């Protein structure tokens, strides 16, 4: 039995934030999931939403943050929740990691994981 590839997309911002990166990431995740990939979007929890949920076939993992500049500059909170989510993410055999935003502290977390 062939195992589905697992792709993790790191994007500092994601829905319900709105913008080009958010829309691109959401569409990419949805298309990859539709092609049979396991997709995990690791993002910042700028709106106080559940840490984990599934949207359009993609698993969303929201890391805790301080949403500065009305959520446009999320600064990671490296608290117990963050550490637990990162341990979970590290335990998943990832085939690819896409760092979708740069110049965010979130991107450094992704680079360390990769």
Could you describe the 3D structure shown?
It is a single chain. This protein is an alpha/beta fold and 114 residues long. It has helices at 20-34, 80-90, 105-113; strands at residues 6-10, 38-44, 52-55, 58-63, 65-68, 73-76, 96-99. Helix 1 (20-34) links the parallel strand 1 (6-10) and strand 2 (38-44). The longest helix has 15 residues, at 20-34. The termini are far apart.
Instruction: State the end-to-end distance.
Output: 26 Å
Q: What's the helical proportion of residues?
A: 25-40%
**Separate helix tally:** 3
Shape: globular
Mean pLDDT: 94
Q: Provide the structure class.
A: alpha/beta
Topology, number of strands: 7
Order of strands side by side in the largest beta sheet?
A: 3-4-2-1-7
Oligomer: single chain
Evaluate the radius of gyration: 13 Å
Order of helices and strands: EHEEEEEHEH
Low-confidence stretches: none
Strand content: 25-35%
Largest sheet: 5 strands, mixed
């Amino acid at each position: 039995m062939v195992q589905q590839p697992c792709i993790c997309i790191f994007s500092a911002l994601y829905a319900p934030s709105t913008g080009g990166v958010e829309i691109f990431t959401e569409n990419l995740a949805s298309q990859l999931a539709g092609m049979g990939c396991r997709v995990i979007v690791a993002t910042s929890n700028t709106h106080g939403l559940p840490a984990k949920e599934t949207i359009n076939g993609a698993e969303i993992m929201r890391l805790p943050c301080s949403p500065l500049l009305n959520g446009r500059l999320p600064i990671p909170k490296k608290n117990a929740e963050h550490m637990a989510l990162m341990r979970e993410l590290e335990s998943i055999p990832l085939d690819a990691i896409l760092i979708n935003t740069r110049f965010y502290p979130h991107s450094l977390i992704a680079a360390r994981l990769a």
